[in-house]
Amino acid sequence: MKIGAYSYKGGVGRSVSTANIAVLLAKRGKKVGIIDADIEAPGIDQIFGIDVPSINLLDLLAYPDRYSISKNSFPVVDIKNELKLELDGELFILPSARDRKKLKSVTVDPSLSVIFDNIVKEFTEKYNLDYLFVDCRSGLAHYSVMTLWAVEVVLLFFGWGKQNFNGSNYILSNVIERIPKPSFSIASRIPDFIGEEELKERVQNTLGNKLLGYIMQDKDLAWEEQIIVLKNPESKAAKALTEISYKIEELGKI
User: What is the value of pTM for the model shown?
Assistant: First the structure.
């Protein structure tokens, strides 16, 4: 299953939630991949604490005739071996670099959609993935929307507040429904004073799609985005992410 992790605004915990969910699925024996497609503000590498290979997603996007996953394995990081994690499955990451020069070499035009779609297909096939998460750039730019064409399901992350709800509603109505793709909402970094029923009611009234789960604010993630499901599996965030990961597994069975 190819899953897009998307949000109207940044800073809502999309990347760190995606990373943690991927680890949970890999722990349960799944072959999982992540593409850090947020090329203007990549962060998956920092969440896992890995070095970005010199050849990475930016090179695959800018020079598709020269580099591809089917020909080269070096852009992909084997997280299980790299970090010596105890996983029953596998976890592979295709990171992106903070490199302004390479970023300028990526031409955002209709051909880029084809290039990205090929990257997704090659990554999935080469590593025989059960799940591939595409951590998308937030917002409404062409590149952000383009990445959604390559996935099968969209997870729409949002935080608390009027801007988040209204912006997410706009994305649902004007982007996701026009592609169209099945979508599910995940509320993240929700303040403790917000009750579950109030949250569900606002999601239903404003967004209208299914709330897959919600993650309350957690002090362990306030400063450092980390793999909380391994470092503190009993935390509020880890328990919420675990519940969401099981629901994603159920989606894969439909």
Answer: 0.93
CA distance 237 to 56: 30
| Structure tokens given for 200 | 């569900």
Domain boundaries, the chain: 2-252
Chain centroid offset of residue 35 CA: 8
Using the structure block, give the residue that is written with the tokens 């919600």: 214
Under DSSP, is residue 199 helix (H, G, I), strand (E, B) or coil? helix
Quick one: tokens of 123? Answer: 């990554």
7 closest CA partner among 104, 105, 141, 102 = 141
Q: How far apart are CA 144 and CA 4, in angstroms?
A: 10
Take residue 73 and report the two structure tokens written for it. 């394995």
Condensed to tens digits (0 to 9), the pLDDT of residues 184-229 reads 999 988 888 888 888 888 787 777 768 898 998 887 776 678 899 9
How distant, in Å, are the alpha carbons of 56, 121, 204, 224, 229 from that of 7? 23, 23, 17, 20, 22
Domain 2-252: CATH superfamily is: P-loop containing nucleotide triphosphate hydrolases (3.40.50.300)
Is the per-residue pLDDT at 152 higher than 90? Answer: yes
Under DSSP, is residue 94 helix (H, G, I), strand (E, B) or coil?
Answer: strand
> Rg of the chain over CA atoms, in angstroms?
17
The whole-angstrom separation of Cα 65 and Cα 187 is: 40
Taking the C-alpha atoms of 245, 247, 248 and 250 in order, what is their torsion angle to the nearest 10 degrees? Answer: 130
User: Residue 210 belongs to what H/E stretch?
Assistant: strand 210-216
